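Task: sequence in, structure out. Protein: Two-component system response regulator KdpE.
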Amino acid sequence: MNNDAPILIIDDEPDIRRFVAMSLTAEGWRVQQAATAAEALQCIAQQMPCLALVDLGLPDRDGVELVRELRSWSSLPVLVLSARSEERDKISALDVGADDYLVKPFGVGELLARVRALLRRAAPQEESPQLRFGEIDIDFARRRVLRSGDEVHLTPIEYRLLTAFVAGRDRVLTHRQLLREVWGPSFVNSPHYLRIYVGHLRQKLEADPARPRHFVTETGVGYRFCP
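Result:
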């Protein structure tokens, strides 16, 4: 991802664009602004941004449709900023390819944290065969998981779920996304499988399974893995 590329703010409310732009520029990021989906697509065509912040209530097109079109030809990270707080709205945006979802009104601190996480994930980096978080070490080459130096036995499904979380780190992963990836398309309407196996991972890999720090529930939507 080009470090000189701007962050594109797509919102028809001038006050919101101004607030978000000021918050981002104060941290040293360049920004572009668009008030409509058409204007946003033109900005993207002229200079690919490093991140798009998308409102769902655009005047010329629903933001979910814009995200779906973007995702058909681009891996551009997308953070939805919307007043729509219903679970079905979050799920719709995430299922079509948004990387994260933040409900208005939101604080500057949370906005900047979400932006940093998505840019960190999108930054070019060498693939590492190992990952460490908390007391856990994962050696992907040997398919070994250690906790404080002791090997942890994971079933094949638990290991597949863990790798799906790692691949989507710092993103909200919907129930349907995880079920499709780990169990297959015929299980996307079987969320009880996911609850059981996330519980297994928490028991085996969290310091306090009752207060998970790494496998975090996004209520009604899915989960987020925070290394």
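The radius of gyration is 19 Å.
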